[in-house]
Every structure is written in C-alpha cells, then in structure tokens.
Write a structure and sequence with these properties.
The complex is a heterotrimer of chains A (436), B (326) and C (163). By secondary structure, chain A is mostly helical. Chain A has helices spanning 3-19, 24-40, 42-57, 64-77, 80-92, 98-111, 117-134, 139-150, 152-155, 160-169, 173-201, 214-222, 225-239, 245-262, 268-302, 304-315, 319-334, 339-355, 363-380, 389-397, 403-409, 411-426, 429-432. Chain C is mainly α and 163 residues long. Chain C has one domain (3-157). Chain C has helices at 3-36, 43-64, 80-115, 130-157. Classes of the chains: A mainly alpha (436), B alpha/beta (326), C mainly alpha (163).
C-alpha cells in the first residue's frame, strides 16, 4: 500500500472511531500511532513515546493555555460575568430584545478576558439565562443567543484557537490577536442586528424591561472596570510586547485571582472549583494536543500534505475556489467536530496549500487572514447541529428548552456569521488593516 | 524514474524552516549530492521545521534511537550531556566559521569519539562569531554593558554575559525581534547570519564586534546519522556518505557559513548603522573579565574526569592553526 | 468518592497549585525585569517543566469527570447496551494507551537520568520531572480502568435492547 493511500485512509478511520464514541484525542493518538507503526515499525514509535509526550507538554508556547483557562475560571468566580451583564442590561434592557443584546455585549466583554468559548457560554449562561427566562424571552432566542454569544469567547482575543493556529503556522500570536479584533467587533454588531431583526419580526420573543436611570447606568458601567483594566493590561501588554502571551496569561490569572480574593469570593470550595474547572478543560485540550502530535507526525511521514499542496498547485484552480472549498469543508467538519481538533487535524494539510496561493497579500498576511476566516468558520461548528458543544453546554443549564429549539434559535446568528465571512473575504483589510 | 527504484530511504529532520541557511546551504544540497552520487539508490526525504514531531532538544535522541535517520541539531540543546564539544562555545576560543569548523574535525577524532559514540557524526560545525546588535545603546567599553539586558542563547553565553556585567535574558530566537522593538531587551548576541531573516537589523542601530580572529561566542552544530542505519549500508553506499562527511566537506560548509554573514552585515550597513570593534587594551579587559567562565568550565571538566586544560589548549591551537591564511 | 477518583482529584489540585505558583513566579520575573533588570533566572524553563507536570496531572481528572470530547450524536438512537459496550471498549483502549505511555515515560525518565540532560539555564536535571509524570500516568491507568468497569456495570444492569 502506498504511503499516500495510508495517509488518506487515516481520515475515514478516524471518523469511524469517533462515531464509535472514542474520545477525539484518543482516536487521533490511536490512528496516528498505528499509522506510524505501519510505516516505521515499533522501535521508532516506542522510542518517540519515551520523551515525546513530555516535550509536547513542556512547550513554552502552550503554557499559555492552562493559564488563560485559569484566568477565565477566576474571572467567573470574581463575579465579572454578572457585572458585565448588569451593565449591558442597564444600557440596552429597555429596548425590544434588549436582554438578548445585553447577553451578546456581556459575552463580548467576558470574551475579552477569557480564551475559551465553552467557558464564556457557561459563565454568561449562569447569569443571563435566569434573567431572560424571568422576562419571558422566547426559549429559542434565549438559548440561541447564549450559544452564539459563547463563540465570542474565541472570536475576541485572547483566543486559544488563535494561539494554536499561530504555533502551527509559525505566525506571531500578538499579530493574530490584533487581526481578530475588528472581526470580533463585527461579530458583536452582526449578532445585535440579528436580534433586532428577530424581535422586529416577532415582538413577543424579546419583551422590553424597565429603563435604568442615568446614575444606575453609570454605576453599572463603573462596576465593569476590572474587565477593562485586565483586558488592557493583558492584551495591551501582549500587543505592546511588554510580555509574551504566556506571561500575559500569567499576569491575567494573578489579577483575576486577586480580584476574586479581594471580593471575598474565594473560599475552599470556590478555589477547588476554579482548579477543577481548569484541570478538566486543560486535560481535555492536552489529550487532543498529544493525539494531534502523533497523528501529524504520522501524516508527515506519508507525505500527504506535500502531495496535496502539489496537487492543488498543479490543478491551478483560482485561489478563491480553493479558499471556498476549504471553508466549506470546515463547515461540514464543524457539524461533527470541535474547533481545536479541526484546526490541529487540518492545518498541517492546508497550511502548505494556503501558503502558496496568491490573494494579492504578502505570505504572512495571507496566513493571518486565512487564520481569522478559519477561526470564524470552525467556531460556527460550536453551534451547528448535530454536534454543537456550545448548544450542549447551554442545554445543560436550560433543561426546559429542547435542543432542537436551540438549534433553530442559533440559525439567525449562523447567517450573520456567514455574512461576516463574506465581508472578510471581499475586504481582507477589515482584519489586516490594524497590522499595516 | 530513478527515485522510485531507491533501495534506501533516509529521513532527515531538523527544527529550522526550509528557508534557513542550514536547510539551503547544508541539508538540501547534501541530500541532492548523495542522491546523485548513489545514482538514485539512496533517497533522502527532508523534514524541516520539526515536521516529524517533537521539540528541538529531542533531535539527538531521535537519531540515536532511529526515530529518524539523519538530524541536524545543536548539542547544546541537550545541556550538560556533551560537555567536551562545549569548549568551542567558550569566549575567545572560536574563530571564523571556517576555522572553527576545520578545527572541529581534527578535534573530533581526538576528543569527541566517546561523547558521540551513540551516533554516526557526518559533520561537526559552527557559525561565524557572534556580534552584539544593540538598540539605542552602543557598546564600546566593558562599562557600557552594565545593566544592559541582552538575549543569551545558551548557558555558556548566559554565563559570559553575566561575567561581562550585563543582564542575560534567555528567550527563544523568534521572540527576539519583538522583545527588541519593545525594549524588553536592549540587544542580542547573534551572528549576522540570522539577523536579516529576523529583521534584527531594522530594530537595532549599533553593532559591536570583536577585533581579531577570535570570536566572543559561537554555537556548535551537529549533522549526524543513525549509527545502525549507517553500518547497515552496503560498502559502496557507505563510501558515498563518507565522501560527504567530516573534513571532506568541512571547508566548504565553514566558508558557506562565513559567507552567510554578508547579507545581514550589508543590510545593517545600508541603514548607516554605527559599527564598533573591541580591540587592544579594551579587548584584554574583556578577556580578563570572561576568564572566570573558562576557569569554571575547566574545573567542571576536571571534576568529570576529563583533562579540561588540555582539551581547551588543543581546541585553541587547532582554531589558531586554521585561522592563519596559508 | 472512590479512592481512584480521590487520587485523580488530588493530582489535579497539585497541578493547579503548580500552575498558580508558576503564574506568581512569572509576575515576579516581569516586575524584576522591568524594575531592576533582574528577571527570575530560567523563568521560561521553569514554566515549561512546571506546565508539563501540571498537564500530566490534569489528564486523570479530565478522564474521571468525562471532560474528553465524544461525538455522541449518531449513537444517541442506538440501544443503551451498544453504547455502554462501545464505552467499555473505548475506556479499555485508553487504559492500554495510558499503560503504554506510563511504560515509555518510565524509560524516558531513566534515560534522562542516565544521559544527564539538564535544563539550559538553571542546569536542573530533566529527570526530576519524571517521577511526578510517571505517577500521574499511573493514576491515569487506574481512572481509565475505573471508567471501563463502570461502563461494564451499566451494560450488565441494562436489559438487552432497552434504550
Ligand atoms: Na477571548
Ligand atoms: Na457543530
């Protein structure tokens, strides 16, 4: 059997294992390991496994992940999601659909200090869900807005997926964060417009609430100062180059931890919950990283990535056709997979293809721009059926709303995502402008 | 074609990108030459940028354990494991890339056999002496170094900078440009070979080199093959590897690394930077200041049961011999 | 809580505390670098090694709490017995992989001990990280076996074919 065939077969085998309820990280480890074994024999694989996992985990660029997760956990304990939602509610609540808009604004604020979608959805869900239910918001709008708003956790920097993408493509993490900024704000605007259209078409879906007084608004806004402070310090510090992303995440974790402590929110139970939340999410991510390391080493051995790039080059398709095909594939994969696994699995194959396409940008710009497009599309996977992790998280919080209702509820937001992707393809400077 | 009839496939792995000096000057041309001389019986697959997995410090074990067949790496990445070859990294031991590389071949036969017995070395080599690339602060005397934050690549350079009174900051090379532009470091000690691709020349304004034929620091490189794999080759193919190993290629590779300095130096000149040289009495003061680093190394070697002073003297004599133009 | 679950909890808490200490060390290093030109020596390598230990310490906890992502959509409508059977097989496979990682890491640690690898700046022996890592991997084997056992128990308590 030719090596290329082995490489190409690995993907269907991987999907079959996933369907058979094998955890994704384990499936990659298994298929990668067996593939490696079939090409190189047992000796090299056993030798690689002696120190390979240790070196995979002891990577300075990856240390940022558990630290950002810790920061998000402390931020939840410090009650920042509540402060953010209250502020947004006091400014937007009196509008039709205002609580849903406030949820989006709150998610965006929380996303500015949290690098993970799931944590953002879960954290804001605990605060916003009871409020929207109390004011009799429609079920699908309530859960749909939370599931979609959760994706802002990744779309707005800091972002764990962007960090992984930057490592895989040898791009600067700070540049990736800057390139994600305007697309992230566009996402917020697009979601708010989507809510506006929903409540215009169906006014009972998002009733108005009491208008807050000017002083209440100012006070509520003031309460969010720690978010602004920590975001400026961490993301500002990373962008200004005062410290590395890992150092920024460490500073952020210490700041949010101190804040939670100063507010009297840290006791033995909440401290334990913080560590456990970090441990669970980190353990999940690091198993996927371990699986991807072995899988991608195997894939390189088959020379499939090189062959795929050569094939695309020989076909001489228009760069935009290739781009659309890749983004379309991401949408399809996103129905099944989580965003991290998708990026880790596909970027080693797509990276050499994208790097040689000419979109009238410099090679670095092409990779950054593609990274932002890929980020948006893989994040859509978190809210597309059948496997949408954000929808699952919200469903565990809102047991009275059926999952199919939630999946219907996210449709307008998916549409808004697609429009944003189109805008970014037509106007790359929306993402690259701040870097030039 | 011949490629399909190859009887031996060798996989070569290293951590730098395909655009790096090592890939374009050493690994790729070497592979092509060996393939051609074997008339297609050997095929060499190239995997830059750690494509076969792992981190740079793993490369040595990868070639030792047969995870891959050929690697290019820095023995210094597995710190503490190859103390003898470290002698070339000590202050004022190395010379031009060519001189150091030539010296290393003779030295290897005498002192490195045991240290690298687990693998089959193809070539030991080194880069041209490093230069201080500074932003805002120029270095002309020992006193100028006080309190300056300078990026150090290895433990020896870390100790070297500390002995000179500077603050050594350890960070990965790719982080250097940003650290420079934001003032996290005041400068970096690097060969010009890497300054252009890192755009260090755009971020600095003065450069301080050491006068004479001795360098303040270099890094020792290792290009090596798995031992069992090498020994399993038929004699005629073994000979092709041998004909492209050690002293057969040392001069060309050393000269190529010296030449690789030029674009970076030209780029800095084009920007009308200022250039300084440490010479004469000032150089003597630097040598005196860094002597403790050398003494500590000799003492450490003695403790490990190696003739530290003799190794140091040999390395110096060999570099000296190859530094004198014939 | 079973002893194994408590063990997994314990390693997770140790990993979390290491992570918090690393964050504090980093803050001290940044301040030292900015104010006194004096960063914590070897801060990068401490972060790398510490984070690696923490990551290994988190693996058993993620397993015991079911954090690992499973694509459960298609199997949703399958009989419960089939799902429990598949889960038992998956957990047993993970136990096997964990045992493999445990065995190789033990060798890796011994190799580092024998070869004398040290960290770049602080010259700390690399093998020092391995007793903790090997211990975490041992706990991982136990947690995977425990998960396999509990899936197997569920399989036995469900009458065949019932959802
Ligand atoms: Na974020
Ligand atoms: Na999905």
């Amino acid at each position: 059997m030719s090596l290329l065939l082995i490489g190409a077969l690995a993907f269907p085998v991987l999907f079959i294992l996933m369907l058979l309820r094998v955890p994704i990280g384990l499936a990659m480890l298994l298929v990668g390991g067996l593939g490696y074994l079939s090409i190189r024999g047992g000796g090299p694989l056993l030798a690689h496994l002696q120190t390979g996992p240790f070196y995979t985990f002891s990577n300075y660029s990856l240390s940022v992940i558990p630290l950002f997760l810790l920061m998000g956990q402390f931020a939840t304990q410090a009650g920042l999601s509540r402060a953010l939602f209250n502020a947004a509610q006091s400014w937007l609540g009196h509008r039709r659909g205002g609580l849903a808009m406030a949820t989006i604004a709150g998610c965006a604020g929380f996303g500015a200090i949290c690098g993970s979608s799931l944590a953002t959805a879960a954290s804001m869900g605990q605060v916003a869900l009871p409020e929207m239910r109390r004011h009799r918001y429609a079920g699908g709008l309530t859960t749909g807005v939370l599931a979609a708003g959760g994706t802002l956790g990744i779309l707005i920097p800091p972002s764990i997926i962007l960090i992984i993408y930057a490592i895989l493509t040898e791009q600067n993490v700070a540049s990736m964060f800057v390139a994600a900024l305007i697309p992230g704000l566009l996402a917020v605007a697009g979601y708010i417009v989507a809510i506006h259209i929903i409540v215009t078409l169906s006014p009972s879906a998002g009733p108005v609430t009491v208008k807050a007084s000017r002083s209440q608004r100012i006070k509520a806004l003031y309460e969010t100062w720690p978010v602004l402070f920590i975001f400026s310090l961490v993301i500002g510090g990373i962008y200004a180059g005062v410290f590395t992303p890992t150092e920024g995440a460490a500073v952020g974790a210490v700041c949010t931890g101190l804040l939670a402590y100063a507010r009297g929110r840290l006791n033995k139970a909440t401290f334990l919950a913080t560590i456990q939340g970090t441990a669970g999410a980190s353990g999940m991510i690091f198993l996927i990283l371990l699986g991807a390391d072995v899988f991608n080493s195997f894939l390189a051995l088959t020379q499939l990535p090189v062959a795929a790039a050569g094939f695309v080059q020989a076909m001489a398709w228009s760069p935009f056709v290739v781009l659309m095909a890749i983004l379309g594939l991401y949408l399809l994969l996103g129905c099944m997979m989580d965003s991290l696994s998708m990026i880790l699995l596909t970027i080693p194959v797509f990276f050499p293809i994208i790097a040689q396409l000419d979109f009238g940008l410099t090679p670095d710009e092409t990779l950054i721009w593609f990274g932002i497009l890929a980020l948006i599309v893989v994040e859509m996977g978190l809210i597309t059926p059948p496997v949408g992790l954000n929808v699952f998280i919200i469903s565990t919080l809102a047991k009275d709303i059926s999952m199919s209702e939630t999946f219907k509820g996210v449709l307008p937001f998916l549409l808004s995502d697609l429009i944003r992707v189109g805008l970014l393809i037509v106007f790359p400077s929306l993402s690259l402008g701040l870097l030039r | 074609s011949l490629g399909n009839t190859a009887e031996i496939t060798l996989r070569a792995h290293h951590f730098l990108p395909a655009t790096s000096t090592v890939h374009t000057v050493l690994v790729e041309p070497w592979a092509k030459k060996v393939e051609a001389e074997s008339k297609g019986r050997i095929k060499i697959e190239l995997y830059p940028s750690m494509q076969l997995g792992g981190k740079p410090p793993q490369l040595f074990n990868q070639v030792r354990d047969g995870v891959v067949d050929i690697v290019w790496t820095l023995p210094g990445y597995t710190a503490g494991r190859f103390p003898i070859i470290e002698v070339f990294e000590l202050p004022f031991v190395s010379g031009s890339a060519k001189a150091t590389t030539l010296a290393m071949q003779t030295f290897a036969a005498q002192y490195l056999q045991d240290e690298f017995k687990a693998i089959h070395p193809i070539l030991f080599h080194a880069h041209a002496p490093g230069t201080f690339h500074m932003k805002g602060q120029s270095i002309q005397t020992l006193e100028d170094l006080k309190k300056l934050k300078i990026r150090a690549p290895t433990r020896v350079t870390n100790n070297l900078l500390t002995s000179l009174g500077a603050t050594a900051i350890g960070m990965p090379v790719p982080a250097v440009p940003q650290a420079l532009s934001k003032g996290v470091i005041d400068g970096a000690l690097l060969p010009y070979e890497v300054t252009r691709s890192l755009r260090v020349h755009e971020l600095t304004d003065s450069h301080t080199a050491i006068a004479g034929s001795r360098g303040i620091y270099t890094a020792a490189f290792l290009f090596a093959m798995n031992k069992t794999r090498y020994e399993s080759l038929p004699d005629d193919l073994k000979k092709i590897i041998d004909d492209n190993s050690g002293s057969k290629i040392a001069e060309a590779i050393g000269a190529a690394w010296d030449k690789a300095e030029e674009p970076g130096l030209e780029a800095a000149r084009a920007l009308e930077h200022t250039f300084f040289e440490i010479r004469d009495e000032e150089l003597d003061r630097w040598k005196a200041a860094t002597q403790p680093v050398i003494n500590a190394w000799v003492k450490d070697m003695d403790k490990k049961g190696y003739p530290g002073q003799a190794i140091l003297d040999t390395a110096r004599q060999l570099v000296e011999r190859h530094s004198t133009p014939k | 809580m079973s002893l194994i679950t408590r063990l997994a909890n314990g390693t997770a808490v140790c990993g979390g505390i290491i992570l918090i200490l690393l964050a504090l060390m980093t803050l001290v290093s940044i301040l030292g670098r900015a104010l006194f030109s004096m960063p914590v020596p070897g801060d990068y390598e401490l972060m790398e090694a510490g984070c690696a230990i923490a990551a290994f310490a988190f693996l058993p906890y993620a397993q015991v709490t079911g954090h690992h992502i499973i694509v459960a959509f298609f199997s949703r409508h399958w009989p419960a017995t089939v799902c429990h059977f598949l889960d038992t097989v998956a957990h047993l496979t993970f136990s096997f992989i964990a045992a493999l990682l445990f065995w190789r890491a033990a060798h890796g640690g011994l190799n580092f001990y024998r070869d004398g690898d040290t960290s770049m700046i602080l010259a700390i022996p690399v093998w020092w990280a391995f007793p903790a890592i090997v211990f975490c991997l041992a706990v991982l084997i136990l947690t995977c076996l425990q998960s396999a056992y509990s899936s197997w128990q569920q399989l036995k308590t469900h009458p065949a074919g019932s959802p």
